[in-house]
Amino acid sequence: MSKAPIPDDVRRARLRTIARQNGGAVPVPFLGLTWQTRGGAYWRRRAGATVVFLLALALVGGMATGFTIGIAGNGRDVIRVVLAVLYDLTAIAGIRSGLRTLAAAPLDDRGRIVGSAVPNGLLALVLAPYGTGLVLTMLLATFRRDFIGENSAREFSGTIA
Q: Which of 24, 40, 85, 106 would you call most buried, defined as having the most Cβ atoms within 10 angstroms of its Cβ?
């Protein structure tokens, strides 16, 4: 069961409140307020975020690959192969979660500014394909013209009512 998205009017009100609290601008995850000028600090932070996502993808993707190989074994047992495929299909849920996160950015699912999070170690191992899908989606989003949440931040910055 997926979480209900934040209603648009609630999202807009929260972004306006955050803009008021930050001198009229909405901070963007990883970038803070540097997105406004797109100077050197902006590009350093943006490149750093991309590197973080690359490293996270290598870590979680490697774990998912290792678990898949372990589950599938030598590939001769049909049940083990089916379980490995089902295990890897959780990446689809991760991609869906990543797309929802991108759509809501710079807010998280609780309506706060997105912050960094460290997953529970055991949970990360079990849900490695989910994490792989999520991180891959976020990584690909770092290569867009505007960074994650930058459009929403630009839209709501300066709209103090």
A: 106
